[in-house]
Amino acid sequence: MRKEIESLLENNRAWADKVNRNDPDFFTRLSNQQNPDYLWIGCSDSRVPANQIINLPPGEVFVHRNVANLIHHNDLNALSVLQYAVDVLQVRHIMVVGHYGCGGIRAAIEGGDNGMVDNWLHSVRELYYQHRDELEPLSPDERVNRMCELNACSQVQRLSRTKIIQHAWQRGQQIWIHGWVYGLSDGRVKDLDCTIAGLEEAADLYRIQSATPVD
């Protein structure tokens, strides 16, 4: 075990030395501040590295990851990341990024006892139930991949309903929320065309309404 960790530390030293040789000011610039335009909300899957997929260097993408790229309205971790990204970093684009073949999605829709993660994935099962007429005729792999798309778009909707996002839109901050899915087999990102860009595009029931003066 110690040798495995030592190899990681050696990898780090080699990487830092290489970066310094190629760009001596890189770490000085990076340590001064972060000013990203993008918040990436993705899956914890080790095969989906945010910066590499969109070919941006460190400091350009603020990242939050969890199993199946979910937004729960009682998840203080995700909401804290969202608030910091929106209110402090002033990101302009939020990308919810699923990936085809997601193990979390598969576990949710195939059932069985998966332990604690089943509680986390409960909303995925509800989403599957809502779309079961479309999904059940598909093959198992097609069903998982389609659910990966539906789930990413559903999380875009969930983000648009948070007070963090809606207050930002109310004060005139420009934020676009995008739904993407990443293909492990080809490295390509698919835009799911479910972008929400303002309060008027959020579902009526969930909108914060401007205060009305009382006569």
Automatic annotation (TrEMBL):
Belongs to the beta-class carbonic anhydrase family. The keyword Transmembrane helix does not apply. PROSITE patterns: PROK_CO2_ANHYDRASE_1, PROK_CO2_ANHYDRASE_2. It is an enzyme of class 4 (lyase). Its cofactor is Zn(2+). Its EC number is 4.2.1.1. Keywords: Lyase, Metal-binding, Zinc. This is Carbonic anhydrase. The keyword Lyase applies. It holds the Pfam family Pro_CA. Reversible hydration of carbon dioxide. InterPro entries: Carbonic_anhydrase, Carbonic_anhydrase_CS, Carbonic_anhydrase_sf. It catalyses: hydrogencarbonate + H(+) = CO2 + H2O.
